[in-house]
Amino acid sequence: MSAVLDTRLQQLTPFGQRLVWVIAGLALAVAPHFGHIAIWTLLLAAVATALRMTIEIKRWPLPPKAVNTGFAFASLLGVLLSYKTLNGIDAGTSLLIVMSGMKLLESRTARDLTVVVFLSYFALFAAFLYNQNMLLLPYMVFTAGLLTMTLMRIHQSEPMPIREAATTTAKMFLQALPLAALLFLFFPRLPGQFWAVPPREQARSGLSDEMTPGDVSDLSLSSAIAFRVKFEGEPPPPRERYWRGPVMHMFDGRTWRQLGATFSQQEVASSGSTYRYRISLEPQSRNWIYALDMVTRWDRQRAFRGEDFQLKARQEQISVLTSYDLESSPTYVTTSELRRDLRRVDTYIPRDRNPRTIELAKQIRESAGSDEAFIQSVLTRFGSEEYYYTLDPPTLALNSVDDFLFNTKRGFCEHFASAFTVMARSVGIPARVVTGYQGGEFNSMGGYFIVRQSDAHAWSEVWLEGRGWQRIDPTAAIAPERIERGLDAAISAEEDVPGRVLRQSALFSKIRMAWDTANTFWNNQVVEFGETQQRWLLEKFNIKDPRWEYLGVGLVLGLVGFFLILSAYLAWKFKPRSRDPVAHVYEQLCRKLAKLGVPRQAHEGPNDYVERAAQARPELAAQLAEVRSVYVGLRYGPTPLPTQLSRLKFLVNQLEA
Amino acid sequence: MNSAIPTLITQADPVELIAATTAQLNRVILGKEHQLRLCISCLLARGHLLIEDIPGVGKTTLAHALAESLGLSYQRIQFTSDLLPADIIGVSVFDRETSSFQFHKGPVFSQLVLADEVNRATPKAQSALLEAMEEHQVTADGATYPLAAPFFVIATQNPVYQIGTYPLPESQLDRFLMRIELGYPDPSLERQLLLGQDRRDLLATLAPTLSPQQLLLMQTMVPKVHVSDALLDYVQAIVRYTRESPLFEAGISPRASIGLLRAAQAWALIHGHPGVMPEDVQAVLAGVVGHRLKPRDDTAPKTPTEIGQFVLKEVAVP
């Protein structure tokens, strides 16, 4: 196969062979963009490439300049129409890729190919704007290496063996590595959005701002990571690991929705022990920080606690992996009163929906006597009656809570939370649904928790006079294993949970943890390396409170120094072997004669040169003849006398330039 | 300036002796003084000479005139496609009186051997001569016979594009210290040639200007000519250039670099230089390296002379 390919390659002209390499490099560089930019741009680039290759094989002439220009403008227009802009990552990348194809179409010299290779570098590194995955790194190193090899081989007049090109590339890579590391660590990291990767419109799985029965269970099928948490000291027990997300107030009989901002700002007081931890959120399309209930300390410049105690980032979207240092207290009370308008919202249920549920709630409340007793008996009822906790709940009718409580009796956490909240509201207790995550998997290798989309959860909060908002998790009543041991344990063995069998294998679980530990290291040490980490690093070097301007100047000076030392070393390494004084005087002579209009040619021997000079300047002939004989005797003769050197110096000085 | 050279020769110094020889040769071979001096340098450096040119430019005459002027015993071997090694080195003949084989020495046992049109013979015959050149001795029927001293081979060769030639392989070309071309004479000299005596008659009038002893002595003086560090730098720069340049298939061998230095020393000796000058190296450069470098493709200079000139221009004198 490769032999066939080899002979096919041999049939091409040297330019054609280089073209094949350039195309291969371009294809590898563009490949990571498959899937997130407009497909037509990739297709167009592919067509242009195929066309260019056909032209090369068939030895056709290249398309005329006008055609190329037309194509280029058409594709520019295409990108503009596709994205409504030429700005931003997506439009920019598309443009880059399309134009690489167009450039290929008009490439006829090594210089053109160089441009294509450089475009390929850009396209390749643009992939990092989309995805900072660790797996991408080896791919990028490989592709960048291939591009560098191609670049090198384009510029060799001789065909350069692949092995030699690879060796040189590897050597250059290793030589560049310290410099890259230096720049990575000390290049000024500026705070603020301007320097950050711009957010992109992209569908990402995660919690949303509304909840319909079935939403959370759907999300639970995904094993994508939502965030990772590392605790300082002892982690909280499972029953305290509630990661708070958006809170739902408004119910239309089926779907729960959030309230507008600032409407439900409330005060909270915490007491008792606290947990300090660092949460690293995977990119999401929101700015929600899933803090442990109840978050008490956070970086106020980067985050704020909004309505319903939900912590949010001070940016529109957490578009890259981001970490926050937080502190939470599991015991807390709401200190402010429940506002009347909010009380009205949180006790509202559509009167014409779910009549049987309302009836049932009222009966229980009557027999219970108090709100607390009512809650307890509802939970007991959930635990004792024939309710099933399942990932695959049946679709519910219009009166969803009625249908669930009295007919299907099979539900996931959101069904139970929804039903409980409706029942509480039926008897006038203010109640709301909280969504978020619960639990998490402990990675003993890295000492942190991984919280996945499959840990998505929904629970209720009720307002009790004098105690404020209290968390009530109906799921804990029906399926306590869910809270203590996670989803895999809570769902009955007959039901199919994606990946459960695999997760129960010890080896797989070990590999998965090791992989995640490596990923976390990559995320924390490389992707997340920013201003804070740099500050910390500089403090290690005893540089307190560095300003980025100084850092920039220092870096530039450092680089200049580095290159000065490097050039000094190279100059020393390649300097002419001995600075022989005779040679020095001869150089002086050559300079003088050059000024007299007789410059020495590099390959000219001293006799020939001085002879020529004497012919050009007959008035100096006698002087030059002596210079020549003394110099030649000194430099090439057997036993030079020291006096001859001073004579030579004297003679050369005598020459009028 | 000549006092720098150890005066080992009592009669006269090499410069005068060689000048006299060249002057005499110049009467026979018109206007080729540079080639004649190269030829003598090659002899003094104990190398062998390859003259490559079209027939009739005076290759044979040059060899013959050189032998006469240097007082050397002279043999000419005309190489043909049916030439056998025995025709060169000699043959053992059964002697009836002594009832034993007697070795009859071949033409190679002369001091100056002219191998005419060496590339007309088969490789077998060629290698018999080239081995003798390398070893300075001949082995036949188990006995080893030393060759004459001085021993100097002038081989002539027709340009390889001519019909019926067996071009010498690179390995054998490397055994010739120098390769020169004679070329056409100048128009004025050609006129003189047309008007003048028959060259063959002129040859008869030549008297030796140098004894073989003087020649041997001068050969021992060649390696003693002073070589400075600066000059070695230059020679090494040339060698390095031929090895690193992408234009040639391979650089010159260490044997060739020694040869280059010896030839330059010989040139310096016969020109009375106190030590070897860059110009001495340049003078012999084309002759020494021209036939040893093989151009890789069309962009490289092609003929040996062009190659020599090209290398000379490319390497800076330190």
- Secondary structure: helix percent of chain A: 40-55%
- Over all CA atoms, what is the radius of gyration of chain B? 20 Å
Number of helices in the DSSP assignment of chain A = 25
Measured by residues with Cβ under 8 Å of the partner chain's Cβ, the largest interface is: A-B, 23 and 25 residues
Task: Give me the secondary-structure category of chain B.
Answer: alpha/beta
Question: What does this 3D model show about the protein?
Answer:
The complex is a heterodimer of chains A (657) and B (318). By secondary structure, chain A is of the alpha+beta class. In chain A, the strands form 6 sheets. A 6-stranded antiparallel β-sheet of chain A has the order 9-12-7-2-18-17. In chain A, strands 3-16-19-20 form a 4-stranded antiparallel β-sheet. Chain A is elongated, with a radius of gyration of 38 Å. Chain B has helices spanning 14-28, 33-44, 59-70, 85-89, 123-135, 170-173, 187-195, 199-205, 212-221, 229-244, 254-270, 278-289, 304-314, and strands at residues 49-52, 74-78, 90-95, 100-105, 112-116, 137-140, 143-146, 152-157, 178-180. Chain B folds into 2 domains: 12-209, Rossmann fold (3-Layer(aba) Sandwich); 225-318, Magnesium chelatase subunit I, C-Terminal domain (Helicase, Ruva Protein, domain 3), CATH 1.10.8. The radius of gyration of chain B is 20 Å and the shape is globular. The longest helix of chain B is centred in the last third of the chain and has 17 residues, at 254-270. With 318 residues, chain B is α/β, with parallel strands linked by helices. Chain B is built from 13 helices and 9 strands. Chains A and B meet through helix 23 and helix 24 of A and helix 10, helix 12 and helix 13 of B.
Features:
heterodimer; A: 657 residues; alpha+beta; 6-stranded antiparallel β-sheet; 4-stranded antiparallel β-sheet; 20 strands; B: 318 residues; alpha/beta; Rossmann fold; Helicase, Ruva Protein, domain 3; 5-stranded parallel β-sheet; two-stranded antiparallel sheet
